[in-house]
Design goal:
- The chain has 19 helices and 14 strands.
- By secondary structure, the protein is of the alpha/beta class.
- The protein has a five-stranded mixed sheet with strand order 2-1-3-13-6, with helices on both faces.
- α10 crosses α18.
- The radius of gyration is 23 Å and the shape is globular.
Length: 412
């Protein structure tokens, strides 16, 4: 009995510190039902490996509040293990020298070969992996209620810009709201992503929003893009101002509206309402943008942590990049995997279409960072662009003045 007690004491002595080491603290802003369910997949995978998940949810769809919380933690010398981040925010933290080096696990698991270069531009800093991309969202999507379209005499998805506008007018004549939209700056800019690609093509978009080429920003093509925004403005209802994106999605789902231009996270609202893609709703690229994918990618930036926490952090990074998790997570989230080697067998029709488009865009170099979602320009310029786009959409400035102001905003 004495030997048994000694054995138990020794086991306990070693077990307690091991359990203390095997935990991760994850700060994120995925607090809605579908988002929380998607994150639960990762939490469950880690718990199966004996790693405790300490959840740090910070509400706020764009992550601004989350970044404030991170700043306080880093300043106090106690950063979380991992933080959900987008685009240039990752690079900004990396420049401060506070992110971990994930090169060992990345090399072991071949991340360089499976993650597109367009994503690696944000996942790496000075040649080192500092974050693990969990998904790729795409912004140039249109969501449509098939029954509403049929009632308006629309039998197929519009292929050109002119067809899209004509269909919108048909919807209005049939008594529906043509375009469900929420008048918030980021939503106006999300529409503008697709409009600019549709108007000028991917090379023009790249010159204007990634290279910040003054000639492109201050061009007849950009003027035409703003004129197209004016066309869309006539298709929204009078109560659009300040509406949240998911409320706008609900208008399409419930049959009040025909179309919504929104990123693929909108699909989660349709699925949550038990709607079936291809039957109840259709998903297609903003007319004129097929073959191009404007993206943003949720990533988990890994912060430098104490030596006792590195092993659990590495397991977290590995679990995020696991193909099985990437599939399970993105099926729930509405996005597509950040890896190009994940099977589409578990995805619905819209998911399969998204994965096919993503693979094609990666191969043809038509995968471009979304201006609206912080993957084309740093936050200061993005916010200055937001201001111009929203004032134009609300009729405060005309298209000519918007072009001039957009070019000036690129220098902010």
């Amino acid at each position: 009995m004495k030997k048994k007690l000694i054995g138990l004491a020794i086991t306990a002595a070693f077990a307690v510190p091991a359990m203390a080491q095997q935990s991760v603290e994850v700060l994120h802003w995925w607090t809605s039902g579908g988002e929380a369910a998607a994150l639960g997949v990762l939490k469950g995978n880690l718990e199966k490996q004996g790693i405790k998940w300490n959840d740090m949810p910070v509400a706020g769809g764009g992550g601004e509040q989350a970044m404030t919380a991170v700043r306080a933690r880093v300043t106090a010398g106690n950063p979380p293990t991992a933080v959900q981040m987008l685009g240039f925010d990752i690079q900004d933290w990396a420049k401060q020298g506070v992110l971990a080096d994930l090169n060992d696990v990345a090399a072991k698991e071949g991340w360089d070969k499976t993650v597109p270069a367009a994503l690696q531009r944000f996942s790496k800093f000075n040649g080192k992996w500092v974050s693990a991309p969990v998904n790729v969202h795409s912004t140039n999507w249109v969501w449509a209620n098939k029954e509403v379209l049929a009632k308006a005499g629309i039998t197929s998805d519009p292929k050109t810009w002119d067809e899209f506008i004509a269909d919108g007018e048909k919807l209005q004549k049939a008594g529906f709201i043509a375009l469900a939209h929420g008048g918030q700056p980021w939503q106006d800019a999300t529409i503008f992503d697709g409009v600019v690609i549709s108007t000028g093509g991917v090379d023009f978009y790249r010159k204007a929003f990634i290279d910040l080429d003054p000639k492109s920003l201050n061009s007849p093509t950009m003027l035409k893009a703003f004129d197209r925004m004016s066309q869309l403005r006539k298709l929204v209802d009078k109560d659009f101002s300040g509406r949240d994106w998911n409320v706008a999605a609900g208008m399409v789902i419930s049959g009040k509206a025909g179309f919504q231009i929104m990123g693929d996270w909108a699909k989660g609202e349709f699925i949550g309402a038990k709607k079936v893609p291809g039957k109840d709703f259709s998903c297609f690229r903003v007319p004129g943008t097929q073959g191009v994918v404007s993206f943003n990618s949720d990533q988990f930036a890994m912060f430098k942590v104490g030596a006792d926490k590195v092993a659990a952090q590495t397991k977290l990074a590995s679990a995020i990049m696991d193909p099985g998790f990437q599939s399970a997570f993105n099926v729930v989230k509405g996005s597509v995997p950040a890896r190009t080697d994940v099977s589409d067998k578990d995805f619905d029709d819209c998911g399969k279409k998204g994965m096919k488009d993503f693979a094609e865009a990666n191969t043809k170099n038509t995968l471009v960072g979304s201006m609206a979602h912080g993957h084309a320009v740093p936050a200061s310029i993005k916010n200055a662009f937001y201001d111009v786009i929203t004032r134009h959409f609300n009729g405060q400035i005309d298209s000519k003045k918007a072009v001039v102001e957009l070019a000036a905003a690129a220098k902010s």
